[in-house]
Amino acid sequence: MSKTETDTHDIGEAGDRLSTAPREDGSDSGGGAVGGPVLGPVGWIRWFWRQLTSMRVALILLFLLSLGAIPGSLIPQTSADELKVQQFKDAHETLTPVYEKLQLFDVYGSVWFSAIYILLFVSLIGCIVPRTWQFVGQLRGRPPGAPKRLTRLPAYTTWRTASEPEQVREAALAMLRGRRFRAHVAGDAVAAEKGYLRETGNLLFHVALIVILVAFAVGQLYKSEGGKLIVEGDGFSNTLTQYDDFKSGSQFSTEDLAPFSFSLDSFTGTYEKNGPQRGTPRTFEAAVTYAENGGPDKKAVIRVNEPLQVGGSKVYLIAHGYAPVITVRDGRGKVVSSGPVPLLPIDNNITSTGALKVMDGYRDPSGKKEQLGFQAFFVPTFAGAGKGTMFSQFPALDFPVLALTGYHGDLRVDSGLPQNVYQLDTSKMKQFAVEGGTGKANRLLPGETMTLPNGAGSVTFEKEIKEWASFQISQQPGNGLALAGAIAAITGLAASLFIQRRRIWVRAVKGADGVTVVEMAGLGRSESARLPEELAELAATLHTEAPTAPEPAEEPAEESEGAEK
């Protein structure tokens, strides 16, 4: 028998049940070993279940889940941005078929990610439930009695005292209970145990992982997320038709949309003018007026990372741009279109592009109904004529210039095919000849007018330039649950790492010479330098109640020799 086996045999029940971890006795090992048992169907099922619910497999699955989330962060996801996914497919024609077969464009909804997720969920539940019942049984029981040989324990001390064994045990019991040990007298010794919060923290950590998994599932099933671009002075009501784009979980219903509305009063953006940070936003905020469920109007300011929380939803400020006010008149001077035209930024200095579409109300010089389209290119700070570039030099409205290219014909908005509101389909249109038929776009300053050829009308770039802000309205019902799970996981992990579960025994018996022999020993859940220190403190305290007995005096040497004669 090895030393480890001998120690375990001598310690016996004293070292048992310090942990709720399942034992590995090898009784259900595979049947491939020579002379081993042959497992039937039930035996294999039991073996598979024990493997699945082991902590080792749970950690492997958790690691695989983390690895599986990596492509979801690096590769565009259909659930987040279909346009980026399409752009990625167009740019990577070779990789696209492989990624599609592996479901890498929809990682979190893929079969393999769901399989890992469900297996981890089952593994954690199968691991936690039996350990919880075992731990409850330990809490209801008493610390085991002292082993026969306390000297084999990692922390040990002993001394002799003149006090009676009963007195020593009573003093030890009072001392240990005063130190918040669970203690009782078991035979000729006092058995005590402390540090149950370690196992409680361990179980709390694993329960918290389940809570986080549930929160993730709830968030994916019941979430909603949509975007809305709003020009200063316009508003938004939280209904499905108001969104520019909208995505939701499979169990989400439009009836779950929180009843609220808000309007964009103004957007304020200021930028660093000098130095290496030139153009960096310093102020980036949207002033809004909102109302919840038909209630009174309230004022609020939305900033980056400071969303508006209303009706169970969060409204995030995510982008900003300009909306030049453009007025279009026909050949008779009748206004056929007038208002701000939001344009999309294409660089950090808010160089912007977009389109203005006049779909109804316009007639050409002959009186025939026709549609107009204008491709717009806007720079808030123009470099100046002859500078060789039309791109903006600064994000603020220091020198705004608008370039327009006009078309007439059929916009194909009635073809039944969806169109991007910021792009023109010029397949059925002709470009207006400008500046002697060169085909170049007209550059306009605020207040200037571009006259269309052959009496087709005019386009005016009004002096007013409005700003727009883009908002993301999201509803994540699992966020609160996930936060609670994360806090519980950190708390449980801290308890399991920094609290040591340990047992202390104090044995007091009469020696062969009638003097009481006191033995103290300790055993921890894991080896720690703190256990001998704690045992020394306890021994010092008990020693004041049961001090060391004086050694018996030795007889003089002369008397001894006389006695021999």
From TrEMBL:
Nucleotide-binding listed as a keyword: no
Q: List locations, semicolon-separated.
A: Membrane
Record's compositionally biased regions (Acidic residues): 552-565
Principal localization reads membrane
InterPro entries linked: Cyt_c_bgen_Ccs1/CcsB/ResB, ResB-like_domain
- Domain named ResB-like is located at 55-535
Q: What membrane topology does the annotation report for this chain?
A: Multi-pass membrane protein
Any idea which UniProt keywords this protein has?
Cytochrome c-type biogenesis, Membrane, Transmembrane, Transmembrane helix
- Region span, Disordered: 1-34, 540-565
Q: Where are the transmembrane segments?
A: 57-75, 111-133, 203-222, 480-499
The stretch of residues making up the signal peptide is none
Compositionally biased spans, kind Basic and acidic residues:
1-26
Recorded protein name is Cytochrome c biogenesis protein ResB
